[in-house]
């Protein structure tokens, strides 16, 4: 039996986005919106949907955690041999999407992905909690099939025995960060009557990295 949601609707009235008063740098606006989400106690404001598409032309989407906003893009960490890692190896074009319901805001980033420096990945890996480090070794290759949960738990216990709590877990070569260099970023603020504000920043191709053009899109 189907489920019908056509009577479900909300009016979005929490904010507005004015093209004249937004910062010239989209990074400033992104950081501001992340801070707003944090202040509003959004759970995991750094969680973003990452869409990739490999050579098979089939898009895939999943949540990853943004771990840094750099001067050129956003960084997340994962297993390089996962399904997403294989997509990225075949096609570096990707999008990420944040949605913060509490703020009635959405941010869509379009860009190209590349691995970050291995030393930087290792520094972050070593900073992670011990159990998360062990977990990264268990989930290899991430996205591969495992017979059952017991197999995972046995591997976890074996690794815990090999690397007790205060020992150093080696950084896996198959694990690390990716940076999505932002080419385009759209900020969406929900408004009443479906008259939402959508402002997209596009990087100027002929100028230095600081140049961005904005335009308003129909909602
Ligand atoms: C809130 C949340 C945060 C997540 N963060 C990450 C992350 O930072 N890195 C990661 O590899 N997977 C993360 N995952 C798991 C991914 O969504 C996904 O299941 C996993 O990376 C395998 O994706 P793939 O098979 O498409 O490669 C997270 C999932 C959730 C729900």
UniProtKB/TrEMBL annotation:
**Binding-site residues, FMN:** 62-67, 77-78, 84, 106, 142-143, 188, 198
Chain residues that bind substrate: 67, 124, 128, 132, 194-196
Q: What is its EC number?
A: 1.4.3.5
Entry keywords, A to Z: Flavoprotein, FMN, Oxidoreductase, Pyridoxine biosynthesis
CC cofactor note: Binds 1 FMN per subunit.
Write out the pathway annotation from the protein's UniProt entry: Cofactor metabolism; pyridoxal 5'-phosphate salvage; pyridoxal 5'-phosphate from pyridoxine 5'-phosphate: step 1/1; Cofactor metabolism; pyridoxal 5'-phosphate salvage; pyridoxal 5'-phosphate from pyridoxamine 5'-phosphate: step 1/1
What does this protein need as cofactor? FMN
**What domain of life does the UniProt record list for this protein's source?**
Bacteria
What Pfam families does UniProt report for this protein, alphabetically?
PNP_phzG_C, PNPOx_N
All copies of the Pyridoxamine 5'-phosphate oxidase N-terminal domain together span: 35-160
Start and end of every Pyridoxine 5'-phosphate oxidase dimerisation C-terminal domain? 175-219
Please write the reaction equations for the catalytic activity of this protein.
pyridoxine 5'-phosphate + O2 = pyridoxal 5'-phosphate + H2O2; pyridoxamine 5'-phosphate + O2 + H2O = pyridoxal 5'-phosphate + H2O2 + NH4(+)
Describe the task this protein carries out.
Catalyzes the oxidation of either pyridoxine 5'-phosphate (PNP) or pyridoxamine 5'-phosphate (PMP) into pyridoxal 5'-phosphate (PLP).
Provide the assembly information.
Homodimer.
Instruction: Provide the family line.
Output: Belongs to the pyridoxamine 5'-phosphate oxidase family.
Cross-referenced PANTHER family: PYRIDOXINE-5'-PHOSPHATE OXIDASE (PTHR10851:SF0), PYRIDOXINE-5-PHOSPHATE OXIDASE (PTHR10851)
The protein here is known as: Pyridoxine/pyridoxamine 5'-phosphate oxidase
Q: What is the lineage of its organism?
A: Bacteria, Pseudomonadati, Pseudomonadota, Gammaproteobacteria, Moraxellales
